[in-house]
Here is the input.
Amino acid sequence: MKTRLILKPGQKGTKKLTDKYGDALICVRFRYDAELKQRIKTVELIVEKTDWTPPPPRYTADTLVPLRIEGYEKDLQAKTKEAGGRWNPEKQLWFVKYGKITGTQLEKHIQVDENDNTGKPKKHLYVYTS
Here is the structure.
């Protein structure tokens, strides 16, 4: 099933749904099912609003973050170098300041694992039960 059209409230084709759902209407989608040869109209609605406090950012702009970039990804390596990144052959990772890659495709390559940024394993508390 493919979505071909997404309309915002107030656009042509949403008047009846805007009248029905009011401010709760987020969008109207038209989906097409080739097997059944049907057009399906769906709506996205707000069903609840609650207060929410966003979590603090994981990294500050000055935090060195490890990037895992494969050897064949030459264009990403070049972009990392342009952002001031340095290759660490011992850890096989690139390190660059987070503020230099925020909002770029490099942000998706941040290595998040059981090691901290020094390469040492994080300490865990293990609880054993019998």
Remarks:
- Strands lie at 2-7, 25-33, 38-45, 64-67, 86-88, 93-97.
- Residues 121-130 have pLDDT under 50 and may be disordered.
- Residues 74-82 form the longest helix (9 residues).
